[in-house]
Amino acid sequence: MALGTALVLSAVAGMAVGSVRVPPGEVWGIVAHALGLDRSEPSWSRARETIVLDVRAPRVLLGAVTGAGLAVVGAAMQALVRNPLAEPYLLGVSSGASLGAVTVIVFGVSLFGPLSLSAAAFAGALLTLLLVYTTARTGGRITPVRLVLAGVACGAVLTAVTHLLLLAGDRGNQARAVLAWTLGGLGGVRWGTLWLPGAAVLLGIGVLLTRARSLNLLLAGEESATTLGLDVGRFRARMFVLLSLVTGVLVAAAGPIGFVGLILPHVVRLFVGGDHRRVLPTAALAGAVFLVWADIAARTVAAPMEIPVGVLTALCGGPFFLWLMRRDAGRDAGRGVAWPPPNSSSRGSPSPPVPAVSYETSR
What we know:
Blueprint: H1 2-16, H2 24-34, H3 46-81, H4 93-107, H5 116-136, H6 144-168, H7 172-182, H8 191-210, H9 212-219, H10 222-227, H11 232-254, H12 260-272, H13 276-300, H14 309-331, E1 338-339, E2 357-358
Antiparallel strand pairs: 1-2
């Protein structure tokens, strides 16, 4: 409830703050009038209504959707590969999306009009997913180690091709457009393009919530999960496909915004424990609030210049994660790092109880 209230207030702040400041009360009035909840005569100018409804509202909603999606995907990915350093871009999906977007920018492809860049980014993410799975599949099985290694290798190759295309371009504005996109940003979104990431995130969160118990079982170890009736191989394959598709849609909409899916799951687990029935919805709300405020900061810190939101998330997330690693290393020196937190089962009664799991870097 606290995070839901914070998200509503954050959305209002996101629509109020900018180069043209709109009082929060006026924002409420504009939104209520647009929804048909207030039929009184408007007391604001048409220009302010356009700024709030057509420019800032889609941007705030995209930030909330992207933050929620990346946080949930990160939490699920960390459970699937049993590695606290896992994040949504682990399988090279962002590199494939970047290659698709750069191809559109460099060659001026406009097959789908204004949606050409997003369509190319999504197609690149999907093709990368197929390539990674084909590479990692051996003997009919896919292990997390092979999948991660295939993702890293494919991501490196696709990044090299992206840089080659950029160097082959003969106009300087192409380099600026590519750099702006690869740093991540929420500008330029319109209502007509917002439905796809919203639908993808809602579908992904819904499916993951129905499989929260399976994610809890997987944290107990593959042998324990198999004993309790979980087909680990099939479950992992299906979840990786789902997470990669959601990530591809989000990258196509907002570019690769890093650290949201890496940091927020850890922060959430400090408050609600390791049970994914609580982690997933809490991570979604926390990620939405975080990215909305990150976008507000990106628009105001260096105004009138706008900082790419991906730069701010990296500046916030990198030091925080280093601090988190140092703190855990000092606490668990000599006995290994336990994750999820050993006291996670004390906040309710997960079904089944989730034991502390030590990640083995040698796997």
